[in-house]
């Protein structure tokens, strides 16, 4: 079997400004098992993010799972301030694609899935 | 003792409209106040630099009319922060004028507090001279010269100026630049509710329906702050807040989901728990405000870096597209030669269909499109010069010759006439710094006005 990319497991992969000088990414899941699988794989690390965007590891400011939202949070230094002369994306909302292509080390078994439902209790 | 404070947020972005039927449903829940955020840095430095509102005034007037009438009919406070967009004095005055127009139309009578958030530049330079300000992004030291090149500089107020206005009996509060959660946290804090819970609830309310499913900024949201938790609920009966949608909102537009710094301290959400109360409501506990030793507020200002002119064209010829980089480089060289007497010219090629969106971050370096959009983007010290450079580059590219050319009548398709578009002044965020205060209200003067029509 081929390797899974992040986009096959995550429900939302988005980018946005966090203020004019940071770019922040949210990777969100609709299935706790998929989230846990990605978390266990160690795929989401500052080193991998730096590699995907060809930036310095020091410019990855935050990179962490956030269990309450079944999500990962990544924040990097913006290459150029929002709206500055060389900027290309004032909102920063179209910078997510390199994340969608991150490859997991092995295939994911869907038998283990546990979808989130509205009735789910406290996290 | 009050058991709860109920806040109603009509929309996440004033001027963009909101669901009025759902808003009525929100009012039926007997809110203690209506709060509305009306500003942002998200739309870039132009609005801070010029002090202009993001949208036409008529759109703000439309949105304001329903919330003002509803608040006055129910005798509950209406709090509006960051009016309008940057929250500088000029846009604040425009918002106040809109309030007057609406009040006049309906013959309203109320007490209005107007809170300014624009910083006096002389005072700012004096403070900077005493102690340098900590940068939250801009490189290099902030100098008095940079301050002079900025448009209005604003400070994000915390809850204290709003609380002072509520204490003064204000029915309507129109504030300049404000931390968005402060608009919604002021009344709960004034009534003795926990600051961490009040601010966290405010952070969710300020984006209204964005923390519900389906995500929608134009959907009103209710927040109920109680003594040991708060609860959020969308006003639209088909919409739902879920633990994941609400916790997920903690991620939106901020660097760290758990530590959210604001005026005077950090709201620590590390121990926050999200519980599904029923199908549509989520209960939150555990948000904790940790005050800083020194009360600091964030300053924002945009420096003018020149004037922008653009030409937007399409290129379809495959032979030209295959040699585009060399052709663009040649035009740049000719432009530098032609305008060698001028300094401060920035020529930017934005090649849509290749890397215009991501630039250096783009993983797909090769050009694959059968057509490309080219924006010739020039920023120069004068508008005329910017247009002259953009039009010179356009003319050079239009008739550029390259190996194998077959289309010798012209290289580019123009979507419309005129070709050259003067865009106006260009700005960059040069002030994004923390400044210490001894009194959280000291740079946010308030005036009280008895509106009586």
Describe the overall structure:
- The complex is a heterodimer of chains A (123) and B (453).
- Chain A has helices spanning 6-9, 32-41, 46-53, 97-100; strands at 12-17, 22-28, 60-66, 71-77.
- The N and C termini of chain A lie far apart (33 Å).
- With 123 residues, chain A is α+β, with helices and mostly antiparallel strands.
- The longest helix of chain A has 10 residues, at 32-41.
- The model of chain A is unreliable at 118-123 (pLDDT under 50).
- Chain B is α+β, with helices and mostly antiparallel strands and 453 residues long.
- Chain B contains 13 helices and 19 strands.
- Chain B has a 10-stranded mixed sheet with strand order 12-13-9-8-1-2-3-7-4-19, with helices on both faces.
- In chain B, a hairpin with a 3-residue loop joins strand 8 and strand 9 (230-234).
- In chain B, helix 3 packs across helix 4 (89-106).
- The longest helix of chain B is centred in the first third of the chain and has 18 residues, at 57-74.
- The chains are: A alpha+beta (123), B alpha+beta (453).
- At the A-B interface, strand 2, strand 3 and strand 4 of A face helix 10, strand 12, strand 16 and strand 18 of B.
